[in-house]
Structure formats: structure tokens, C-alpha cells
Amino acid sequence: MADEDKDSKTEDPTAKKLAKTREEGQVAQSQEVKSFALLAGALVIVAILSPWITDRIALLSITFLDRPHMFHLDAEGLRDLLSALLLKVGFLMILPLGLLVLLAILSCVGQFGFLWAPKRMAPKLNKISPIGGLKKLFSIRTVMEGAKSIVKMGLVLAVVYVLLAPRLSNPERFMDQDMAVTLVELHELLILLLVAVVVIVAAIAAADFTFQTYKHNEDQKMTKQEVKDEHKNTEGDPQIKSKIRQLRMQRSRERMMAKVPEASVVVTNPTHFAVALKYDMETMSAPVLVAKGQDFIALKIREIAEDNEVPIVENPPLARGLYAAVEIDHEIPAEHYKAVAEVIGYVMRLKKTTKR
């Protein structure tokens, strides 16, 4: 069943799905990137900071060696001496420790940005379950991580052996060599080893981060139905949206029909188009189209006009032109002034004749 479910997940995760998993703390991250950052920090400390730190510690030692008679060796004196010594050494160690902490933070932020996921920190009973622990212990992921660690350790040991073997082939020479020269050689050898290890771990970290990003994307893939359901929840059910659109059109049509009794004239095709025009010489600069329709709507406009004794004039070219060119509650364009003026003039003359 698990394989079938995995095979059905063929769609790339949507932005909403990725955002949701991110809120839950599920992001693509590689532990090898963190290892690379810490090893790079160790290289900086050994190559650049360690000479400065050892010089400061040497100056502290000289103080004890030059003036041993000035220190009291009773209990209180030793306590004060050790407190001062630890404070000074601790102050010297702030810089390298701070560098390692900063690099550890940057290695996380560089992979997935700033992330606050309280759900990830919430306690879960399945994490303390013995059965769950055994499943994790013998899972494919654990086996792969173990194999990756063995390969990485093998590469590092191989590089260390290649670099150390030629230099340690004659250890007797260190016995006749000055201690300061030996320490300088050991320092240079340590830097060389760290450089080699950092290069190897950098390559492993790049490959592992690429793999973790790919695996995270594969794990978050969705089925076609999940994509449809998410789209439906985001955009709304198409049937409901269609129903709402129909209700809006119906209400708009009802408001339009309510204006037909106020029209001055209705121009028809005679059956396919109908437009209702309203004009008041005292308040309007040009006639306004208050209603329009085609086929069934045109028939309803004619019926309402007849019921309310609104004049109906058949003028197919004008009816089609106004229907296509003018929106509801808009004034007619200038190119239709002459034709509309003739129709309204005809209606006014007709009203005068009817009154007589």
C-alpha cells in the first residue's frame, strides 16, 4: 500500500504545501553542511587564532614564572589566583567559541533561512516509543546515514595517512630537533590536515545537500487529487463559485429591469435586441442606456415597457449598435447622437399627438 501511495504522488509540491511543511519544521537540510562549517571554523582557529591565543597564554605563564614569590599559596590566595587565571583564559576562548557558534548558526540559516517551528519542538509520544526507536534504528535512512559516515571516515583517514606517512617515516629526528621547530612543524602539519579534511567534507556536504533537497521534494510530492483538493480549498468550489456568479447576474438583471419603467424609449431589433434609453432635457447632457438585452432578456424588456406604457421603436441598426457599444448606466457615444435624437424626437412628437 505504501508503494502504491508513493507511486500515485507524481505532482510537484505546491507553494502552499511547502509553506505548511516548513511551518512544521520539515525542511531540506544536511548535517554535512554543519560539519563543514565547524571544520572550517576549526581551520581558521588553528591557522589564525591559535598563535595569538598561545602568545597570550605564554604571557600569563611568564607572569607566574617571573614573580612566584608574589603569590600567596594559602587557600584564599590559591582561590584568587585560579579565579583570575580562569577568567583571563576564558576571555581568550570567547573569540574561537563565538566563531564556532556563529558558523553553526550560519550553516543552518544558509540552508533553509530563518525558521521558527514550535510544532517541531513539541513533545511527541511516538518519539519515546521503544518500537518506534527500533524502527528508526533499522530503517533505510539510518543504514544510509551509517554507510555515508563510514565512507566519509574512510576518505578522511586515507587523506590523513597519505599526508602523515612521509613526514613520520623518520620519527628519530624529532629527538635531536629543537622543541620550537618541532612545534612549528606540528602546527603546519595540523593546518595541512585540516585543509585536506575541509576540502573533502566540502565536496561531501555539497553532494549531500543536493541529495537532501531532492529527497525532501520527492517526499512532499502530491497526488493529482490532493492538488485538485488544495486548489478547490484555495480558490473555492467551482460549483459554488458558479452559483454565486449566477446569483450576482440575476440580481444585476433585476436591478436593470427595475429601471425599464423609467426609460424614455425602448429601441428594438425587433426581437433579438432591445435597449432602453432615458433622457431628461433639464438634467441630462445626453441620453443614458439604462437596460439592454438579447433574445429572452430583450423580450422581457419589451414586456415591461409595454406594461408601463414606455414607447417602443423598431430600429435594428441602432439597437444592435447601442447594444454593442454602450454599457448599462453609461451615456451614448457621440456617433449615435443623430440617430437617437431622431428616435427621441419621434417619441416626443408621438406623446404630444397622443395628448391632443
Description:
With 356 residues, the chain is an alpha+beta fold. It folds into two domains: 27-219, no CATH class; 257-355, secretion proteins EscU (name from scop). The protein has helices at residues 2-8, 15-23, 31-66, 75-112, 118-121, 130-137, 140-167, 179-219, 224-235, 238-259, 296-307, 316-325, 337-355, and strands at 265-268, 273-278, 288-294, 312-314, 330-331. The chain is rod-shaped, with a radius of gyration of 43 Å.
Descriptive terms for the model:
single chain; 356 residues; name from scop; 2 domains; five-stranded mixed β-sheet; rod-shaped
The share of residues in helices is 55-70%
Number of strands: 5
Secondary structure category: alpha+beta
Give the total of domains. Answer: 2
How many angstroms does the end-to-end distance come to?
90 Å
Entry summary:
By secondary structure, this protein is α+β, with helices and mostly antiparallel strands. The chain is 69% helix and 6% strand. The protein has 2 domains: 27-219, no CATH class; 257-355, name from scop (3-Layer(aba) Sandwich), CATH 3.40.1690.10.
